[in-house]
Amino acid sequence: MSRTFLGMPGIPHGTGDLGGEEPFPRSAARHLADHQMRANLAGATGTIRAKRASVVSELPDWEQLRESGRAVKEATMARLDEHLVELERRVTERGGTVHWARDATEANRIVTDLVRATGAEEVVKVKSMATQEIGLNEALEEAGVTAWETDLAELIVQLGDDRPSHILVPAIHRNRAEIRRIFLETMPGVDPGLTDDPRQLAMAARAYLRQRFLRARVAVSGANFAVAETGTLAVVESEGNGRMCLTLPDTLITVMGIEKTVPTWRDLEVFLQTLPRSSTGERMNPYTSTWTGVTPGDGPREFHLVLLDNGRTAALADPTGRQALHCIRCSACLNVCPVYERTGGHAYGSVYPGPIGAVLSPQLTGVAANPSLPYASTLCGACYEVCPVAIDIPSILVELRNQQVESGRKPSAERAAFGAVAQLMSRPRLWRSAQRLTRLGRLLARGRATLPAALPPPLSRWTRTRDLPAPPRETFTERWARERGDRA
Amino acid sequence: MTVDGRGAGMRVSLFATCVVDTMAPRAAWATARLLERLGQSVTVPAGQTCCGQMHVNSGYRGQAVRVVANHVRAFEGADAVVAPSGSCVASIRHQQAMVARRAGDEGLARAAEELASRTYELSQFLVDVLGVEDVGASYPHRVTYHPACHGARVLGLGDRQLRLLRAVRGLELVELPGADQCCGFGGTFALKNADTSAAMLSDKLASIVSTRAEVCTAGDASCLMHIGGGLSRLRAATGTVHLAEILAATDDAKEAAT
Ligand code: SF4
């Protein structure tokens, strides 16, 4: 009996925009056909990969920083319950209000009620994965509240009625010409002579957003970190839109996954070095905003913190998988992933695409609701190599595959085949006989070096695009035994 | 290591790996010939089958236990185990004990750990244990090299394989653009996600063809089978040859029919 972890009964999984509708191989095939997207993505990820590699190589202590980040996260997760209670106490002491949300539905209801209570009909938003995860914009819209995204890439996605495809650069699948077209078609009052010059595009977005910042009474943000010892929240960004949202409105509502908590200010020291280098390839990000509760006469007069579980406690209960919660959402693993680079983020069906998405999404929803994502990887290990908190994504993928196999009740052809092969491989004499059988393939090859392309499935999935060599006349061990025969 | 450092006369047990044994026996013969040429005495334990990686990586960890147990049994008592595969050695070093432990078999886990500490990928054994980079090979061809992912990232082979290749007489080494990009094989990934796998492979093939090399080499037969299958479908002029075969080649004994 193996002691496989199958999820702790009773701990609820997450809901929301976390995928699972279409199997990855099928959606990937569809997106692979979008050559414009693939060209855009290959260009963008190639550039950011090179930038990251160069700024990371400047730091002689990069590996130590990485290990410190990992250690801080591991220690924090081990006592997350205590840190969260402390965070709640400190935020409350400083005049904020803390809300606990079990899942997406609960979080959406809390935020919607808070906005309604202010009487506002619109909110400005700082880019936030947590609110994407729970589908907050859609929930607000149903309640008659318009949410304006203020991050440039997020704005492009919103105006284009599109979905984000990257956790840091949600419109990474778009190029300049496409962005210009989206602006011309959807941005009220935009200069019809707009070109696709990046500066012109940015200025158009700036003018459009500025009106919204100035009239907004409520802002919704996420958070990169929450420091438990002081109840301080932190947002790290590049465009200044975050600073606007966090300071101008009367009411600020922050939705944050519970795993974003760190115990002390000291812990930020590591992440504020590793995050910008890993994400945008900058030595330092332009804006780091921190705030603690409310300060009379300065900034929002009301502050609400919504602590979101949505499957995180369930993930925390898995000894191998829990390290996925260490993620600081830098997106370095997406940018180096050869699968992500070709399929794009939409293929994953979740707001979390790429390597981290392939482990985080199924953990939040439970593997049963997202059975194909753990297989969306060759296990090449590029993600683990760049991750600034050293999350061993390949090992989690393997663990989730195991959970997926073990949770399957139905007998399948695959299961039977793997069982039979394991039997053979544990009995060398039977294995030798089985190896001899592969020689039958030589009949199919009819003297050619490769087998014919028209083979039955699953082999056809290989031979559609690749040749299979004809099996050799004799295996190595067989001939060695015949010629050299030591004990063989 | 219980063997004395860089000495000759070590008893090396060759683990051919299931893929090489069944589909690419030339790479195993080349490994044996090379090690013997370097003064090692080579044995091929008859009980060997597979390291269990395919089962583990496909989600069948429970089924892998007996495969791991067989592997540990087959190589019991070996001074050193050498395999012409970075991927299999990575699995032996980083998965086998975990597989046993998760099944509650601490005895097997310890034995697997112990065996793993004496198990080497070919280039590791040559460079780290025997301390050689020039193995006396001669291979007068234009060659490009693909650093297969598990060897590079899980085992941390660094430039060991490249150093060995650079010392081969007559070999013209051409750098492969985007060498560190995965070829898209990934075991069952190539079947389960065939379209994505093919997209990755086609970029790898384009890089290889752009080098105008006669041969693309790597330290893993499975990746080479994937790359080679793609090159052959394209009817490209470049073929694939396992690293061991290049290192085993000499002037008088050109890659024979073995
Ligand atoms: S898993 Fe690691 S590399 Fe990927 S986004 Fe998270 S922190 Fe960054």
Shape of chain B: globular
In the predicted model, the low-confidence regions of chain A spanning at least 5 consecutive residues are: 1-7
Q: How many distinct domains of chain A?
A: 2
Please work out how many helical segments of chain A DSSP would assign.
Answer: 23
Number of domains of chain B: 2
Tell me the Rg of chain B in angstroms.
18 Å
* Major sheet description of chain B: 4 strands, parallel
Concise structural overview:
Chain A is an alpha/beta fold and 488 residues long.
Structure, explained:
The complex is a heterodimer of chains A (488) and B (258). With 488 residues, chain A is α/β, with parallel strands linked by helices. Chain A folds into two domains: 32-312, NagB/RpiA/CoA transferase-like (Rossmann fold), CATH 3.40.50.10420; 421-484, no CATH class. Helix content of chain A is 49%, strand content 10%. Chain A is built from 23 helices and ten strands. Chain A has a six-stranded parallel beta sheet, with helices on both faces. A four-stranded mixed beta sheet of chain A has the order 8-5-6-9, with helices on both faces. Chain A is globular. In chain A, 50% of the residues are buried. Mean pLDDT of chain A is 94; it is low at 1-7. Chain B is of the alpha/beta class. Chain B has two domains: 5-129, Glutathione S-transferase Yfyf (Class Pi), Chain A, domain 2, CATH 1.20.1050; 142-248. Chain B contains 14 helices and eight strands. Chain B has helices at residues 18-23, 25-37, 53-57, 61-74, 86-94, 96-102, 106-116, 122-129, 149-154, 160-166, 189-192, 194-210, 221-233, 243-248, and strands at residues 11-14, 41-43, 80-83, 119-121, 142-145, 172-174, 215-218, 239-242. The longest helix of chain B has 17 residues, at 194-210. The two termini of chain B are 31 Å apart. The chains are: A alpha/beta (488), B alpha/beta (258). Chains A and B meet through α1, α15, α17, α18 and α19 of A and α1, α2, α3, α4 and α9 of B. The complex binds iron/sulfur cluster (SF4). The site of iron/sulfur cluster has 14 residues of chain A, from α14. Iron/sulfur cluster is lined by residues 278, 327-333, 356, 386-389, 391 of chain A.
